């Protein structure tokens, strides 16, 4: 009887503890959202009552040659961004995902899952892939442990026991990086299509067949980007914000790029490549260097660049979902963005070498506009950083009110976009994310430019997981 009472006590205690955690998280989330709206309301109020101060500030800028030059350049860039947004909106409306083809038409496919220090998550990834609605005879699953320091290999072995011949596993003798793990998979795989899936991601049942269908309908298709959502968004606040950001980045931006057949980056979490396209640039890709150092980051963007350079199409499939884990704390978040920022700098330089040449038979205007838009964000990062610091020092109240008011205006589109497609209650995290990015991550691009030659994944070690 005593043992039974103890078990009941432990069960109730666990339930209460979980309820407490959920309540605390929800309460903290509501507090953050409330503070976000309070901050924006105050900013709007200040923006309108400080109109005279804004007019005075603008007159001071116009009266100097440097200030006038900056304002003209800023006006031109703002006009360009507005026109480019309208162009992107038109392309988004034009975009249509390609329907899945029949089982008979589906190509032979090799799915490659590189893993490093993922623990049990790699099991979940492999099980979700094995449950895919894809003919078993046409699907090859490869999992490659890139010298993990935890129990990743143990979970791969367990997955192998369950899936048998459907899964083949390999272990790298030492940690060489994701690019080398994928390289091994490309050389081993027998499929006409390669699919790469991160080991911290899971996919829907119809994801794989939806992802490869464009290769059947478009003979010039060299790669396809999947639609990435956040897997761990119920746990912490940062993943909630990132989920809203991902929806805009993929379902709006990549949809627009896909209408031009020029998606600039196929995500490592879920992407598909035509075998011939990969092998046409495989040696260049694995031996890629930057400023004399081997490239160990940005393998997805680099491979996309090299496939675009061949004149092939790169598309986006909105109906091919993968759900991936993202950093849950600020430390992991900024390290992830630094890695992405460095990759953008490197690959924009690489893209500049071919994008204005005759690399593709049909129109190249669209992809050139995409390149210019992305390059401008990099080029103007230092001038705007200097202006921002000057603005903060000289007119802190004007800076705060105008910046947050701008966030309110510009972030309304992501809010409405997410609300139309998914939960309205979650869409408002776009405002909070924009405030975080503006005040907490503004330094990423300038820092990434200054340290573009640095190597390292930054978030791969066990001590860095989810930081």
Automatic annotation (TrEMBL):
It comes from the Bacteria. Keywords: Cell membrane, Glycosyltransferase, Membrane, Transferase, Transmembrane, Transmembrane helix. The chain crosses the membrane at residues 27-50, 70-93, 369-393, 399-419, 431-450. Its main location: membrane. The keyword Transmembrane applies. It is found in: Cell membrane. PANTHER family: HYALURONAN SYNTHASE, MANNURONAN SYNTHASE. This is Glycosyltransferase family 2 protein. The lineage of its organism: Bacteria, Pseudomonadati, Bacteroidota, Flavobacteriia, Flavobacteriales.
């Amino acid at each position: 009887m005593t043992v039974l009472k103890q078990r009941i006590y432990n069960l109730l205690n666990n339930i209460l503890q979980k309820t407490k955690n959920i309540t605390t998280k929800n309460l903290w989330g509501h507090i953050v959202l409330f503070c976000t709206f309070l901050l924006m309301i105050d900013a709007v109020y200040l923006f309108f009552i400080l109109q005279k101060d804004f007019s005075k500030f603008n007159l001071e800028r116009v009266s100097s040659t440097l200030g006038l030059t900056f304002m003209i350049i800023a006006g031109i860039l703002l006009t360009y961004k507005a026109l480019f947004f309208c162009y992107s909106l038109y392309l988004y409306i034009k975009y249509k995902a390609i329907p899945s083809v029949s089982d008979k038409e589906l190509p032979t496919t090799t799915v490659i899952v590189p893993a490093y220090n993922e623990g049990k998550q790699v099991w979940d990834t492999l099980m979700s892939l094995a449950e895919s609605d894809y003919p078993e005879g046409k699907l090859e699953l490869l999992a490659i442990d890139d010298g993990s320091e935890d129990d990743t290999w143990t979970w791969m072995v367990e997955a192998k026991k369950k899936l048998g011949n459907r899964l083949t596993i390999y272990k790298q003798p030492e940690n060489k990086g994701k690019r080398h793990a994928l390289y091994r998979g490309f050389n081993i795989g027998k499929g006409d299509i390669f699919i790469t899936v991160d080991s911290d991601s899971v996919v829907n049942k119809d994801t794989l067949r939806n992802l490869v269908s464009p290769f059947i309908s478009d003979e010039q298709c060299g790669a396809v980007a999947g639609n990435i959502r956040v897997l761990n968004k119920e746990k912490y606040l940062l993943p909630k914000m990132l989920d809203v950001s991902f929806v805009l980045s993929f379902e709006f931006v990549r949809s627009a790029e896909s209408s031009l057949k020029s998606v600039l980056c196929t995500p490592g979490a879920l992407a598909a490549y035509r075998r011939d396209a990969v092998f046409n640039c495989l040696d260049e890709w694995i031996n890629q260097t930057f400023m004399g150092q081997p490239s160990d980051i940005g393998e997805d963007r680099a491979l996309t660049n090299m496939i675009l350079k061949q004149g092939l199409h790169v598309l986006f499939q909105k109906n091919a979902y993968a759900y991936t884990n993202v950093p849950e704390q600020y430390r992991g978040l900024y390290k992830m963005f630094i890695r992405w920022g460095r990759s953008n700098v490197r690959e924009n330089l690489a893209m500049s070498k071919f994008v204005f040449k005759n690399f593709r038979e049909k129109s190249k205007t669209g992809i050139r506009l995409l390149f210019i838009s992305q390059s401008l964000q990099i080029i103007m990062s230092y001038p705007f950083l200097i202006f921002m610091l000057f603005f903060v020092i000289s007119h802190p109240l004007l800076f705060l009110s105008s910046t947050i008011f701008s966030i309110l205006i510009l972030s309304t589109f992501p809010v409405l976009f997410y609300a139309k497609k998914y939960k309205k209650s979650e869409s408002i995290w776009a405002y909070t994310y924009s405030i975080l990015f503006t005040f907490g991550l503004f330094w990423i691009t300038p820092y990434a430019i200054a340290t573009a030659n640095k190597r390292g994944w930054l978030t791969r070690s066990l001590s860095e997981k989810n930081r």
